[in-house]
Design brief:
Layout lengths: L2 H53 L3 H4 L17 E2 L13 E2 L11 H10 L19 H13 L2
Antiparallel strand pairs: 1-2
Helix pairs in contact: 1-4, 3-4
The structure holds heme C.
The site of heme C has 23 residues, from α2 and α3.
């Protein structure tokens, strides 16, 4: 008679343990599914930083410069006047808009279209000296992820 409650307790404990183990497995599963997504985002931001800082040289125009021509750190990718002019008459923009945190009012998808086709959301193209980049969608996405990550 004394063994019955005890067995019941063990039984309950085993069931509780099984339930806990199942929950842990589900949690581990979710964590595993999310980890590659987070890693992919990090990889994309890193590639975007490389494309912006070492290939596209976006800061050359989209950041202000001091009297020695050095980029003023706090203005990095926050927009700036263009400090030079073409020798011949041509369409020309004398200001580069801010890019940090994405161009104002643009979605990532719109930036990807622009950097891979040259078309702004309204279908227009940017004037020189903005280069008409033809990045792959993947690289344009990486640039967008990096710019969006800047505050
Ligand atoms: C040689 C100078 C120069 C470089 C380098 C440059 N830009 Fe620009 N960018 C400009 C200028 C000037 C404009 C404004 C064009 C206009 O108003 O028609 C512009 C416009 C843009 C716009 C359009 C924003 C809007 O609101 O219309 C985006 C987006 C942009 N640049 C992104 C980039 C990115 C990303 C890079 C680097 C991969 C880059 N630019 C490199 C000069 C430059």
């Amino acid at each position: 008679m004394t063994t019955k409650p005890c067995t019941a307790t063990i039984d309950t404990a085993v069931k509780a343990c099984t339930a806990l183990a199942a929950t842990a497995l589900v949690c581990a599963g979710i964590a595993l599914m999310m980890a590659p997504a987070a890693a992919a985002e990090k990889g994309s931001v890193a590639r975007g930083r490389y494309l912006v800082e070492q290939v596209g040289m976006c800061a050359d125009c989209h950041s202000a410069r001091d009297a020695r021509g050095m980029i003023v750190k706090d203005t990095n990718l926050r927009g700036a006047p263009i400090g030079f002019k073409p020798l011949a008459e041509m369409p020309w923009a004398d200001t580069a808009p801010p890019l940090a945190g994405l161009p104002s009012g643009w979605t990532k998808a719109q930036l990807v279209t622009f950097l891979s086709s040259g078309k702004r959301p309204d279908g227009s193209t940017a004037r020189p000296p903005m280069p008409e980049y033809r990045l792959t969608k993947a690289d344009a996405g990486a640039v967008a992820d990096y710019l969006a990550s800047l505050k």
